[in-house]
């Protein structure tokens, strides 16, 4: 077997592997539509989750408030850039423009400041691929969430609750609290799709408190 | 002999009370009550109701102990021998009409007790006007928009003028503000022309405000005051202003699920495309290996 033949064999194997992985991924996404949120997590969940991100994290933690630039949730494999959003014309909080990023409600408190820093992420997108918060419902009490600014300063939070609310009947004053203990709120869609309203009928609201 | 006297004394002592008891139980007792319905409803012509004693009660029957006596609300007892009897009001007057209970015209047996209730009811028509008309000194209720144009999230103020006073109930398309004063300060969650409604007693008025799309944060400084303590520019003993903080609605972070056919078609297209790209290399590799 010549050297050229061996190279062709190697690249062919790589190509076939890529096609197989892609096909499996597509099938997983399709299965997600049929079987629900759990299918994708089982197939492509992170093999290792950080127990305490501050231990393995490269950046030092801080207690000061800052403008967030990156949000990480190791237990569900989220490591996303942060967009700043405000309030839309219909009165709702803005959503991230990219499915792999999260939105921070900039008119509200910053992470580390009194009140809740509110983040939102898509649960899915129109092409059956995952949104950044596809597996937000898998978060458990005690899971870690970290927020970092552009310079790498990091705040570490622990999940304390996960609650689903009707989209139009949520305790907004609690979720978007501007006073009180510093907290973190993660929001995504859940429930059933309401075609007439072009939205899901519920929102999953995960609340996290400073871990330290 | 002595024993005979003692026996007679005992017999007499026992018979006398028995005779007296027999005499007393040969009559019946009739108690007559007279009550007068008070004319409390008359306002312009306040009429003092007569007392029950203004009416004379007449009792006819078998030897009544009292045949005519003034009426009493606490009752008057008359003894009668057994037989029929009748009770009437002898002097119907002052526009009052009597009505009698069934015990006022009945029979009585020895030792029986009967009760008669005579009710004197006013017969004047004006007595039916129980509630006098009261002049309602209400001012017309109007609503004034202090801030005709505001941005999303910016505070808008409204004043209710006139009305009866007391509490005012405000409402927007998004929220109700019950039992607040004549001033409302709130923000809006949607742009465009927004209507604010205020009600006070039975009156309703509306204000309009134009809400623009531009987000304007709430002011952080106050025109009056020191160290965060604000002072009103003029003294007012009206209700405190109700202020609400505008919170956004929850974001829309999902898209409608696609059906299985759409997803499968998408997957097939991608697989075919990938196959087209890889196929030449697979063919060359197979050809080379088969030589």
Largest sheet features of chain A: 8 strands, mixed, barrel
Overall body shape of chain A: globular
CATH superfamily of the largest domain in chain B: Immunoglobulins
State the share of residues found in helices of chain B, binned by percent.
10-25%
Cα separation of the termini of chain B: 170 Å
By secondary-structure content and strand pairing, the structural class of chain B works out as: alpha+beta
Q: Low-confidence segments of chain B, ≥5 residues, pLDDT <50?
A: 14-24, 40-46, 125-135, 216-228, 231-243
Distance between the termini of chain A: 62 Å
Structure commentary:
The complex is a heterodimer of chains A (212) and B (291). Chain A has two domains: 1-44, no CATH class; 47-210, Sortase (Sortase, Chain: A). Helix content of chain A is 23%, strand content 30%. Chain A contains four helices and eight strands. In chain A, α1 runs antiparallel to α2. Chain B is built from two helices and 17 strands. Chain B is elongated. Chains A and B meet through α1, α4, β7 and β8 of A and α2 of B.
Record keyword descriptors for this entry:
heterodimer, A: about 210 residues, alpha+beta, Sortase, Chain: A, eight-stranded mixed barrel, about 25% helix, globular, B: about 290 residues, Immunoglobulin-like, 2 helices, about 35% strand
């Amino acid at each position: 077997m010549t050297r050229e033949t061996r190279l062709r064999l190697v690249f062919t194997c790589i190509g076939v592997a890529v096609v197989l992985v892609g096909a499996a991924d597509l099938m997983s996404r399709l299965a997600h539509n049929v079987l629900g949120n759990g299918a994708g997590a089982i197939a492509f969940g992170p093999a290792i989750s950080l127990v305490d991100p501050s231990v393995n994290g490269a950046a030092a933690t801080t207690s000061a408030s800052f403008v967030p630039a990156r949000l990480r949730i190791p237990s569900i494999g989220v490591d996303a850039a942060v967009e700043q959003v405000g309030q839309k014309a219909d009165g709702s909080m803005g959503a991230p423009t990219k499915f792999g990023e999260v939105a921070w409600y900039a008119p509200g408190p910053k992470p580390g400041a009194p009140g809740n820093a509110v983040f939102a992420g898509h649960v899915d997108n129109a092409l059956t691929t995952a949104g950044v918060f596809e597996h937000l419902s898998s978060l458990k009490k005690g899971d870690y969430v970290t927020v970092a600014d552009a310079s790498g300063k990091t705040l570490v939070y622990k999940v304390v609750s996960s609650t689903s609310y009707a989209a139009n009947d949520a305790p907004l004053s609690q979720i978007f609290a501007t006073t009180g203990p510093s907290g973190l709120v993660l929001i995504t869609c859940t429930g059933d799709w309401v075609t007439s309203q072009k939205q899901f009928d519920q929102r999953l609201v995960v609340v996290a408190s400073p871990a330290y | 002999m002595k024993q005979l006297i003692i026996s007679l004394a005992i017999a007499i002592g026992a018979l006398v009370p028995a005779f007296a008891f027999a005499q007393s139980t040969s009559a019946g007792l009739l108690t007559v009550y007279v009550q007068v319905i008070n004319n409390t409803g008359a306002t312009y012509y306040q009429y003092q109701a007569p007392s029950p004693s203004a009416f004379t009660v007449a009792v006819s029957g078998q030897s009544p102990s009292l045949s005519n006596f003034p009426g009493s609300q606490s009752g008057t007892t008359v003894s009668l021998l057994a037989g029929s009897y009748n009770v009437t009001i002898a002097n119907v007057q002052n526009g009052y009409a009597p009505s009698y209970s069934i015990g006022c015209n009945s029979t009585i047996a020895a030792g029986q007790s009967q009760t008669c209730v005579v009710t004197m009811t006013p017969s004047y028509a004006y007595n039916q006007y129980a509630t006098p008309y009261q002049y309602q000194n209400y001012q017309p209720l109007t609503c004034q928009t202090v801030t005709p144009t505001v941005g999303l999230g910016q505070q808008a103020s409204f004043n209710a003028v006139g009305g009866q006073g007391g509490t005012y109930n405000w409402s927007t398309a998004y929220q109700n503000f019950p039992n607040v004063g004549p001033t409302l300060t709130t923000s809006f969650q949607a742009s465009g022309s927004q209507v604010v409604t205020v009600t006070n007693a039975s009156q309703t008025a509306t204000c309009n405000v134009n809400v623009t799309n531009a987000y304007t944060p709430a002011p952080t400084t106050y025109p009056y005051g020191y160290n965060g303590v604000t002072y009103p520019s003029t003294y007012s003993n009206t209700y405190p202003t109700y202020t609400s903080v505008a919170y956004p609605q929850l974001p829309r972070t999902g898209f409608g699920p696609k059906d299985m056919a759409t997803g499968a078609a998408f997957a097939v297209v991608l697989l075919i495309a990938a196959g087209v790209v890889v196929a030449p290399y697979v063919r060359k590799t197979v050809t080379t290996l088969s030589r």
